[in-house]
Please model this.
Amino acid sequence: MSRSYRVFGILLLVVASLLVAASPAAASTGAIGKDFTLPAVTRTTYSISGTVRVNSTSAAVSGVEVSAASTSASGPFTYGSALTKASGLYTISSLLPGSYTLRFDPPRTTNLQHGYRTATAPTYFSAKTPVVVTITTASLTGKDIRLLHGFEISGKATRSNGTTAIPMLPVNADGASGSDGTTTDSAGNYTLMGLSPGSYEVSFGHDPTASNQTGCWYSAVASKFSATCVSHTAVAISAANVTGISPKIPNGLEITGYLKTRDASPLPVADAAVFANGPEHEWAYSDATGKYTITGLNPGSYQILANGPYNTRFVSGYYNATGPYFWGRLTAWASPVTISSAITTLPIIKPPSGYFIKGKITNISGTGLSSVFVESLGGAGSPYENPGNFTDSSGNYSIGPLSANQSYKIHAITTYSSDPSVMPGWYLSSPPNNFTAAASSALSLLMTGDKNAINMRLPVGAAISGTVTITGGGACGNCTVYAFDATGVQVEQTSTTLSGAYTLSGLPAGSYRVEAWSMDPAIDATHVRIITEGFYKSGAAPHFSATLAGATAIAVTP
Model:
């Protein structure tokens, strides 16, 4: 199963919040003794070693990163890397049998080419075409290589006048034969090193103040520069260094304007973050007068998004060309701003004031719960569809600002709660708990003003507990255990103790399948014990299923 669904950030929490309405297949107050054993196999591992030297001098090269990547298998222990020592020797250990390619990346200061090991003596070097080496029943030694001296691309980056240097400008060369990156010095000079023969796209980024346009070397124009790398001239290296790649880079364009309130006497909105999204993605804060200036832009069309300062009533939204407020809540309402001149000034953007939802999250006894994530679901199409916040040490939360005349449902997510035994759930105006486990039953709050005292008392949820062992009787300590709902989506996770014990708590009524996964297989010099992830399955020992479909559903209710 993919590891991607296990990313436990806020986005995943939002997805998990939709799962609480599942109906249990049967009812119990909890489930204990859900023990199972994960298969584990001990496999012999091997190493690949050799020496890296300079072809022209036979000198050993230290600090070369040597990488071995399997071409015949995937998963742990089919990739490894090592740095060469002062003697040029490298050893990549803990590799399973299979076929591997070897890549060599020397330190930039050596000006040696990057590339692969081949079967062609005496250098065994190719910039692009590796030849596999195969591990069967023994480690591989003598996988030596001689690296060739690299070629250089050099030049000077200046402003449009051709004389004013641009220091600390990122410069990169990318091609099928390799790549390199550097920055210009105080005089605007740069040298790209360690390049193999081939064609390269040479690109130029922003200096630290983002004062210049970004783009590529383009010899078809007088400036030798194109702000869009779709138009660029490849720099070809055959058998000599290339010099004189010296563009005249225009200053970046600017979008500027003001943010103010909609009062009869408008007030400035300071510390708002204003973004220009288009060919470039740049942003700036508004100052005390409400003025913002976004610099370093290339010609093109942009959307302007203004995000309000924290804990203010500024509602985030987009620049819209229609007055008198020049603001739109939805992305679809954003007016494109096409720029070509040095400075483009927009009309004053006047966002509306929004409202807040505030309350307190406690357990049934009224004790405040910290670190509960409370989110507002609704307001479809707004720049931030589901704003939310964590409760403080007393269980208090504040969400906003939210757009007027939009409806939201309030959901409490307990993954990080100070009391993991409580259930996640939704706000429902039904004292004393104001709680429902079903999203369909939640109350929609229409934002015609601030909503205070939106309090919830979270009941204790059901729990599933047991012990995870591995083949041979050892405990699966510090393993991760997951609960999946009836649709196969992750609802909860926990870690086992050193003895392999786990408890998945705070579960709403439903039917769950339990999986365990070990991130830390045991490794020694020549062996690895690989633990297979899998699911609890009732019946005969080892109570294990390799698939979600084969797992036993465990029905619980609080």
